[in-house]
Amino acid sequence: MAKSLNPHASGKPKADEPTAQGHGGEPPRRNLLVATLAAAIGGFVGLFPVGAGMALFLNPLLKKKAAAGEGDDKLKRVATIESLPADGTPIQVPVIADKIDAWTGEPNQPVGAVFLRRTSDNKVECLNAICPHAGCMVSYSADRKLFQCPCHTSSFELDGKRILPSPSPRDMDGLVVDETKLASGEVWIDFVNYYPGKEHQEPKA
User: Fold this and answer.
1) Engineered SS bond to 162: which of 64, 123, 166, 192, CB 3.0-4.6 Å?
2) What molecular function does GO assign, one term (predicted)?
3) Which residue blocks in 69-200 are alpha helix, DSSP H?
4) Which domain holds residue 94?
């Protein structure tokens, strides 16, 4: 019988000849690493539009938080000591601040009112002018020397203590006067509005 002259007739591949598995099997490790790295970079880059969108969405909320501020940014200038009667008569003054409501902001808007009373050359008492009963604006009666609510007849002493019996669940809300600025002749207060109708103070957001 004649021998075949074809060197591949035996069916065994040469040592340096690539096998079918080398072409059609799993990809080499380098290709797998490159594909994984590309997917990771693509996912990271895709986060930038999402982050930018979230920043745009939260921006008004961040501005509102910044407007509330901390430290001196929370204080509101309402008067000077010289503008207050030396005999201790309370006067009502507006509180002016930048008003931010969700997505809009208006500078220098009235956000409330307070009563200021000069008790000595270096001390000032401050009361929120809102009645703690139902949120009406309290007025001062010079004849009776007390505060009165025109809505439901609540009455308060000069220091804000309610006169019993009273529909108001608590005294008038006292506010902090900054002693450092008061020493320089200016009245700055930490202005807070509280929810009416509650026995204990609960500040509004």
Assistant:
1) 166
2) 2 iron, 2 sulfur cluster binding
3) 179-183
4) 75-190
Q: From start to end of 86-138, where are the E strands?
A: 91-101, 104-120, 123-128
98 and 162, same domain (yes or no): yes
Contacts of 47 (CB under 8 A, 6+ apart): none
Q: HEC states along 41-77?
A: HHHHHHHHHHHHHHHHHHHHHHHHHHHHCCHHHHEEE
pLDDT over 90, % of the chain: 56
| 53, 118: one domain | no
What six digits make up the tokens of 75?
């204080």
Taking 3-state DSSP, the helix, strand and coil percentages for the chain, each rounded to the nearest 5, stand at 30, 30, 40
The DSSP code for 147 is: E
- Compute CA distances 159 → 16, 17, 77, whole Å: 102, 102, 21
**Is 2 a member of any domain?**
no
Q: What is the spatial distance between Cα 190 and Cα 27, in angstroms, rounded to a whole number?
A: 68
Are 100 and 58 in the same domain? Answer: no
Does one domain contain both 52 and 112? no
Q: Is 160 helix (H, G, I), strand (E, B) or coil?
A: coil
0.70 cut: is pTM over it?
A: no
Could you tell me which residue, 62 or 96, shows the higher pLDDT? 96
Q: Model confidence over 167-181: pLDDT tens digits?
A: 999 999 999 999 999
Higher-scoring residue by pLDDT: 34, 186: 186
